[in-house]
Amino acid sequence: MSSIETQLENEQTWQRINLGPYLKQFGFWIARIVLALIVPAIGLAAWQYAVQKQWLPEQILPSPALVWQTTLELIDTHELQDNLWISLKRVAWSVLVGGSIGLLLGFLIGLSRIAHRFIYPTFNLIAQFPVIGWIPLLMIFLGIDESLKIAAISLAVFVPVLVATYRSVLNVPPHLLEVSQVYRFSAWQRFRRVILPSALPNIVSGLRQGIMQAWLSLVFVELLASSEGIGYLIVWGRQLIQPDIIFMAVIVIGIVGFVLDHILGWVEHGFSHWQRRAF
């Protein structure tokens, strides 16, 4: 085949490619981003206008430029990165501890009627208390060291993970269980091939809720009993009477939470798509 024929064939192949759906999807995402930025842009403009009109003194409402300058200074001194890394490590350890216990007890309660009768009433009682209500009691037994933060945040993860796991196991479609009985699956085969694939997307959703609850609880814990972390920066700014540090920490907390939620949303969507293909 000559080079001219090859070039013509490549051009014909390129013409057959329909770029319409890709361009439409790209335009959709651009529109979503633009719409999502409208409210923050209005808020930033209103903030700058209030500073220019001096509606509040600078000791209460710092300018956006000052907050940005403070952010750059804390990045330059590594105080922002170090404290954020400490907070993320606390969340990671709490998710590991609280998520593992929640998964274990969730499967146990969902698979065993005896466990449901003995464990679920106690869990239901514990779940009624907010995390902040446990902190004074945990301080008595654990002090104010790192174990207090991990234990308190783990409680925030434990509840949604257990509930999601327990309900996911109970909501496995009956016809799938009937198929496993027809094929005479063992208890382990039924769990591995039927219950776990069916329940996994909802369990991932529970983990997503648990991680976001951990991030929210982290701020409370670090505000009350911590000398480092992103939440402590708010306390530090209040002690120094520097609202620019407080504003900066609040904005960082919001941005990190937003990014975490979207990443976990993509993971959850991926598992849901996998479930549809698996069944």
From TrEMBL:
User: Which chain regions cross the lipid bilayer?
Assistant: 26-47, 91-111, 123-144, 150-170, 214-234, 246-267
Record bears the keyword Ribosomal protein: no
Q: Which domain of life is it from?
A: Bacteria
Q: Which Pfam families match?
A: BPD_transp_1
State its location(s). Answer: Cell membrane
Gene Ontology BP term (one): transmembrane transport
Q: List each copy of the ABC transmembrane type-1 domain by range.
A: 84-264
Q: Which Gene Ontology terms of cellular component type are present? A: plasma membrane
Q: How does it sit in the membrane?
A: Multi-pass membrane protein
Query: Which of UniProt's keywords are assigned here?
Result: Cell membrane, Membrane, Transmembrane, Transmembrane helix, Transport
Keyword Cell membrane attached:
yes
Task: Give the protein family.
Answer: Belongs to the binding-protein-dependent transport system permease family.
Name under which the protein is recorded:
ABC transmembrane type-1 domain-containing protein
UniProt organism field:
Acinetobacter gyllenbergii CIP 110306 = MTCC 11365
Q: What is the lineage of its organism?
A: Bacteria, Pseudomonadati, Pseudomonadota, Gammaproteobacteria, Moraxellales
